[in-house]
Write a structure and sequence with these properties.
Oligomer: homodimer
Number of strands of chain A: 13
Largest sheet of chain A: 5 strands, mixed
Structural class of chain A: alpha/beta
Strand order of the largest sheet of chain A: 3-2-1-4-8
Largest interface: A-B, 42 and 42 residues
Number of helices of chain A: 8
Helix content of chain A: 25-40%
Strand content of chain A: 15-25%
């Protein structure tokens, strides 16, 4: 049986948790999905995670030597190894590293999904070889991971990189964070739907989306309408990109990245979101930054980008110090 | 004669250039000022700088062993060692490091004044022991130096840290950078004067400042009026702090600093600027950052903070590698 060094990448979501073994080059050896079942205590979850990993390791014809476990989770504190009051999970406070180490005797790290995505792009994707870049995850919300001088920025408290909560308009749309006008209320899948609703009020443009009520409207519907030339849907993408590009110009003025990488569901809309974002970014950039900053899609080829990103948390730290034998441990029960 | 290891710090300004020898602890051993005379070729300037440094070294009763030269200058490119089209200097492009090395055989580095200020605070001032902080220089404009993971962020092209050119209002005040609504058009000495002018139009508040025309109005006059209770002047400081605090909340969402340090002429207004800035910062911060970020004045005790900051550029790099004898060179002519 072929022996391969691997890291277990885990992405904990509100409904499902995905896990997989990833090799040093970012190849997903094997992966699986399990229900998170966050209504049960976290200790039960980590027992089930251990079982799932053991089972998964047996399904592959390669012998996965486990070097570490990287975990992506909402509201993760990298410094403390915890998650705190995560949205969509009923756990209040979980010592993720401690709970995981009850079952595995390898290094364990946890960070939020956008930071994991940034490390994934740096090691295996569009940011290979870059020392300064920003990853923006455009999902239901807007997450971000900022890399400067070749290092992910965690900041003083590990909560750096919340570009989704920079302010577009202090009297603007209500945000889940309790404030108003945050970027993610405009530039995200849900923000796109809110913009459609705004345009339904403010413009007279006929649109098939006028027949869909707000609770049933999805960014996929807006995408499909736009693809078929629905002008209101096209305008919604245009407005989304305009606001996103304007605020990303502020981000460039902070860290002067070589590239900004847009990933996640809304980024999959391709030109519909990239073109207006790029146009607005260049329009709002200060002269010294113009025509320098690349706007790129994800460079990850595997489907399971969240697992790759989570594994990169460990691969990145292993890459920084000389290989030591005592990091090579096998799974324990 | 006492022998002391020193770095020559140089701050090149539009009118005057200040220089001084600084020891490892940030003590200014001796300093002087010379006219920049930027109408003459840059080569002449660097010859005069060399003469001034030689003369200065002879005026002290300590023998200054020169370990390096740190230079702060507008539009400096740290990576290339150059300054390019600096405002208020008629030089188009200057190879600062190359020109300086014609006269000195020690390491030479150049960066902009806000980055130098950040390194000065990190080594000798309010940010000692911090790994994540931001320095904001409130002068005629608004400069910034961002430190994350213990390193100054230069970004892909060395032009990171232009928080003064993040956008408050895309249809707002015209900025010297050619765009509209940049933070420095509101939060700076000149921004404060523009705000006074705006309040003269929009409010009916009586004020002694109504008698001063725009070209003669200075931030010092606004400060003195505010100290004497002039309500329009007080409101101008209030508005300045409100806008500054709001945009600094965006900066916190990028790098999650332990502290933001306000330095420069306008910061010397003390509570008049710190109080509204702090209030607005806390109001606009996302929940996870509230009541965590310190807002501090400069911690540099010497008068000549620009020279200290410039010297810190060298002291910081020397601190990162083991002392090597070949770094210790003496001045050559």
């Amino acid at each position: 049986m072929a022996r391969v060094e691997s890291v277990l990448g885990v992405d904990i979501g509100g409904t499902n948790t995905v896990l997989g073994f990833v090799d040093r080059k970012g190849r997903l050896i094997v992966d699986a999905s399990m229900r998170t079942e966050a209504h049960q205590p976290a200790t039960v979850f980590f027992e089930r995670l251990h079982e799932a990993a053991e089972t998964l390791r047996e399904t592959t014809d390669e012998e996965c030597e486990l070097l570490g476990i990287g975990i992506g989770a909402p509201n993760a504190n990298y410094f403390k190894g915890t998650i705190e009051s995560p949205p969509n999970l009923s756990w209040e406070f979980v010592d993720v590293v401690g709970e995981t180490k009850k079952h595995f005797s390898v290094p364990v790290s946890v960070t939020n999904d956008a930071n994991a995505a940034a490390l994934g792009e740096m090691l295996f994707g569009a940011a290979r070889g870059m020392r300064d870049f920003i990853v923006i995850t455009l999902g239901t919300g807007l997450g971000s991971g900022i890399v400067a001088n070749g290092e992910l920025i965690y900041g003083a408290d590990s909560f750096a990189g919340e570009i989704g909560h920079t302010i577009v308009d202090p009297s603007g749309r209500e945000c889940g964070c309790g404030r108003r006008g945050c970027l993610e209320t405009y530039a995200s899948a849900s923000g796109l739907c809110r913009t459609v609703q705004e345009l339904i009020c403010t413009s007279s443009e006929p649109s098939r989306l006028r027949r869909v009520d707000f609770l049933h409207l999805t960014s996929r519907m807006v995408f499909e309408a736009a693809q078929q030339g629905d002008r209101l849907a096209l305008e919604a993408f245009e407005m989304t990109g305009r606001i996103l590009g304007m605020k990303l110009a502020d981000s460039v003025a902070h860290t002067s990245p070589e590239a900004i990488i847009l990933v996640g569901g809304l980024a999959a809309a391709g030109d519909l979101i990239f073109k207006p974002t790029k146009r607005s970014l260049e329009e709002h950039l200060m002269g010294i930054y113009k025509n320098k900053v690349k706007l790129l899609p994800s460079g990850l080829v595997e489907d399971n980008t969240a697992v790759l990103g989570a594994s990169a948390l460990i691969w990145n730290s292993l890459g920084k110090r000389p290989r030591s034998r005592n990091l090579v441990a096998s799974m324990t029960g």
